[in-house]
Structure formats: structure tokens, C-alpha cells
Design brief:
Helix content: 40-55%
Shape: globular
Radius of gyration: 17 Å
CATH superfamily: Metal-dependent hydrolases
CATH architecture: Alpha-Beta Barrel
Oligomer: single chain
Number of helices: 10
Distance between the termini: 8 Å
Largest sheet: 8 strands, parallel
Number of domains: 1
């Protein structure tokens, strides 16, 4: 039987509901000089999740790995207090943060850590991961990042857990896919993150042609593109036949992104603002259920 592994235990995919596939709740990036990137407050996370839940939000993937300050026990606490399913990740974000940890480790050692996180729990904690994360740098895949991708493939083959990636500014998507497929990972278990950082039509068609899932996960970040541009691109991708590959989220990883820290737009932005924008662009209930319920459940199940 397929399951989705949350921080509070396994659930039936049918019970997942409205889901964001790339968010951050609790972060503590090491050596970070920008306090806006530190999100330590459980109370703020609970408040933010309750607001999201009140608008129909049912689940999200918390994409903070250990090299970015993962707090697995905290994730379980905020999930329990808010009623929102939280799926945690094992793996690493990208070379900038992971190099010092990954450099002395073998591929097999990295894979064994990932497998333990998925099957047993993080360290001595019973909280388990439901997704594997790997990432690359802008326009390149460093040797240590390649180690993480190869380890992620081993962990996936051993556990079945899906792989969700970080691409820097939307680059290296095809290279990530090629590497993972060469290591035996099916496209149906791969989500390429941050595709909407690089809204180039032919590039997106090339990614989609491989059969992977594609993350349009930068909603509200106008310094990259406007939400109107993202919505137009998504509707165009749906018209091209790729509806069931698209995954929407906001990747809100700063205090200034959250209402509970005094910022905006908060996790409410997608259900409250983006969903009506998608409707106004011509999407119907079937489209929206696919984007926010069926596709996330299909990707996360193993």
C-alpha cells in the first residue's frame, strides 16, 4: 500500500488534501549574517500554519535539510498544534551550505544517513523524512553536489521516497534529471525545483518532455518574476498537456515573507490570492484539484 510519510506518521495519500510542495517553517542556516533568514520561532510557525489551514491548506513539504538548520522535533510540534500535515526532508540543499559536511563522506555514507532518516528517524528522533533533497549551484554541479545526487538515488532505490531538488536560478535542471535517471530513478519520482526562476518556454518544454514534476514554487517573489507571469506560464503549460507535472508553492524562507513575523504575504498567499488568479485565468476545479491535491499526493506517495 502506498503511503505519504509525515512528521507525525504515515498517512493514506487520499487524505493529503491541499498541499504546497516547497516551503520552510523552521530554519537556522549556519554562519548566516542575514537575520531575516533565521526562522526559529515555533509560535510563529504555528500561527502561520493555522492561518493557512483556515483557508483550506492541509499539508506542506518542509524543505529544510540539516545543512540549513532542520528542526525535526519542532516540525512535529507545529504540525500537531496546527493540524497541518508536514513532510520533512533528508539530504542537503546545495554546495554553499553542504560542502563542509559532505566533503569527508563517501556516497554510500551519505546514502545511509538518508535511508536512516527515512526508515528510522533523524538521529535518535522518531520523526522521519518523507522526501529526499539534493541541489546544485548556478550553472554547475560541484563534485560534492554530485555525490549527494548519487546518494539520493541510492536512498530512493532502497526506500522508494521521492526526490525533490534545488536548482539555483532554475539552472541545471536537465543535468539533474540526466544524472538521476542514469542512477535508476524514474522521472515519476523526481521534482525539479524553482523552474519558475527561469521562464524560458523551450527550456520548460524540454524539462517536461522527460516526464518529471516541475516546481513553480517562487510565488510572491516579484524580484524574479510577477505572479501574473507565473500564472500565464502555468496556463500555457497546461494547454500544452503538462497539467499533471506542475507543482505550485512559495518557498517562503524569510521572516519578512511571513505575516506571523510582521511581514508578507505569508502562507495564506497561495490559497487566498494565487488560486483566484488561476481561476480568473480560466482554470476550473479539475485543474485546481490536480495542481494542489492529486499531483502532490501522487508525487509524495511511496
Amino acid at each position: 500500500m502506498s503511503i505519504i510519510r509525515t512528521v507525525l506518521g504515515d498517512i493514506d495519500p487520499i487524505n493529503l488534501g491541499f498541499t504546497l510542495l516547497h516551503e520552510h517553517l523552521l530554519t537556522a542556516p549556519p554562519g548566516e549574517s542575514d537575520p531575516d533568514l533565521e526562522m526559529p520561532s515555533l509560535d510563529a510557525a504555528i500561527e502561520e500554519l493555522r492561518a493557512y489551514h483556515a483557508l483550506g491548506g492541509s499539508a506542506l513539504v518542509e524543505m529544510t535539510p540539516r545543512d540549513y538548520g532542520r528542526n525535526a522535533e519542532g516540525e512535529a510540534e507545529v504540525s500537531r498544534a496546527s493540524g497541518v500535515h508536514v513532510i520533512a526532508v533528508t539530504g542537503f540543499i546545495k554546495g554553499e551550505f553542504a560542502e563542509a559536511i559532505v566533503e569527508p563522506l563517501t556516497i554510500q555514507a551519505i546514502a545511509e544517513e538518508m535511508i536512516h532518516d527515512i526508515q528510522q528517524g533523524f538521529g535518535t528522533s522518531p520523526v522521519r523524512a518523507g522526501v529526499i533533497k539534493a541541489g546544485s549551484s548556478k550553472n554547475r554541479l560541484t563534485p560534492n553536489e554530485e555525490k549527494v545526487f548519487r546518494a539520493a538515488a541510492i536512498a530512493h532505490r532502497e526506500t522508494g521516497a521521492p526526490i525533490s531538488t534545488h536548482t539555483e536560478a532554475g539552472t541545471m535542471a536537465l543535468e539533474q534529471i540526466s544524472l538521476l535517471r542514469a542512477e535508476g530513478v524514474l522521472p515519476s519520482s523526481i521534482l525539479i525545483g524553482h523552474c519558475d526562476r527561469n521562464l524560458e518556454w523551450d527550456y520548460h518544454l524540454a524539462i517536461a518532455s522527460t516526464g518529471v514534476y516541475m516546481g513553480y514554487d517562487q510565488f510572491s517573489k516579484t524580484k524574479y518574476n510577477s505572479d501574473e507571469e507565473r500564472v500565464a506560464f502555468i496556463t500555457r503549460m497546461i494547454s500544452a498537456g503538462h497539467r499533471d507535472q506542475l507543482c505550485i508553492s512559495g518557498d517562503l524562507a524569510r521572516q519578512s515573507n511571513w505575516r506571523s513575523y510582521g511581514g508578507s504575504p505569508g502562507l495564506a498567499h497561495i490559497p487566498q490570492t494565487v488560486v483566484p488568479m488561476l481561476r480568473n485565468a480560466g482554470l476550473n476545479d479539475d485543474h485546481l484539484d490536480a495542481l494542489f491535491k492529486h499531483t502532490p499526493a501522487r508525487f509524495l506517495a511511496f
